[in-house]
Amino acid sequence: MASAKKKGFAKRKASRRPSRELRATKAVSKRNLKAKRGPAIPITARDQRAGKWFEKLVALQARLRGPGGCPWDREQTHQSLRKFLIEETYEVLDAMESSDAKHFSSELGDLLLQVIFHSILAEETGAFTISDVIESVHTKMVRRHPHVFGNVKAKNSKEVLKNWEQIKAQERAEKASDAPTAVGRETSEPSAGPESILGDVPKSLPAALETYQLTRRAARVGFDWEDLRGIFEKIDEEKSEIVDSLDHLAKRAAEQKLKTDPNTKPAPPDLAHLEEEVGDLLFAAVNVARFVGTDPEIALKHANRKFLRRFQWMESAAHAEGRKFADLPRERMEALWDLSKQREISKAAAKP
After folding, report:
1. Domain assignment of residue 38, yes or no
2. DSSP conformation class of 328
């Protein structure tokens, strides 16, 4: 009887054991998955803790979107969340400057939640999942760091950035070649040329950031001013062209006024050329920021806040004098502006 039981147990155990073919298939799949993931990167205890919390956060957001979840979360779409993605990005930048580590961490978490939220929305339509998002950026980072995970040599950060742009250009070319041929288009049609390294700079970026991205990419492949002096010379050139354009418009307006009936209102001058020259000046100014290693958007934000802070102090100073700032003569306005600047300089000097 005992022997029979032993045989029965062995039979049931064998039936649960994967077949040799299945084990071989799983082994191949495991090797392929490992190869797809790229080089082995050590996973530390810190990474494991982060992974567990990430799983909880993804599950939490899925729960909010699910049946019986939050009505607000269930109403959201990719379009409705756009403004929050932008807002959270700027709140991260503000927190970064606050020197408050807890606040900075919290705002980064809010930004991360936006990525997860969009991924869950995409998963509901079968477009992609959060796993696809993570795998995509992991694969991309391995591919774009051949000097770390491959045999490419890079002596300094300049060579790293140049390699980075070349790899991105290759990726864009491969993406274009994989794109389906349009209906009615001849497959033998000659190529329009190599994919531009500027081709995927988002046109929806704010103008200053777009300038920064365009010229930064061009600079990485060697198309740039040799030094800052060259940019300043360009700024002086653009300033002169603006003055010339203004003189031309003033002269043209005066001539029109003389030629037309005095009772007829002259047509407004064409400002297209002047607008172009102003754009060239701003374009050159953005490159000053890039050349010295400063983000122009952040630099301009700082300038905006400084102006706001000083202007509001002037308003308060005028109020303390029993007057409205708008009613002050220009000379007093200028004097208060100088005082507001001196006040900030003195406060900065007093700090340890």
Report:
1. yes
2. S
Is residue 97 situated within a structural domain?
Answer: yes
Percent of the chain clearing pLDDT 70 (strictly above): 80
Q: List Cβ neighbours of 98 (8 Å cut-off, separation of 6 or more).
A: 104
Tokens 């950026």 found at: 137
Residue 281 CB partners (closer than 8 Å, separation 6+): 235, 238, 239, 242
Residue 191 structure tokens = 């190529």
C-alpha to C-alpha distances, 7 to 2, 11, 16, 17, 18, nearest whole angstrom: 9, 6, 14, 15, 19
In sequence order, which residues have a C-beta less than 8 Å from that of residue 63 and are 6 or more positions away?
Answer: 69
Residues 168 and 41 in one domain: yes
Same domain, 258 and 302: no
Are 170 and 69 members of one domain? yes
Q: What separation in angstroms does the CA of 208 have from each of 77, 214, 231, 241, 290? A: 29, 10, 16, 21, 11
Structural domain for 235, as ranges: 225-293
SS (H, E, C) 225-267: CCCHHHHHHHHHHHHHHHHHHHHHHHHHHHHHHHHCCCCCCCC
How do residues 183-239 score in pLDDT, each as one tens digit?
A: 444 444 444 456 788 888 888 888 888 999 999 989 988 899 999 999 999 999 999
**In CATH, what number is assigned to the domain containing residue 120?**
1.10.287.1080
> Of 290, 282, 271, which is closest to residue 215 (Cα–Cα)?
290
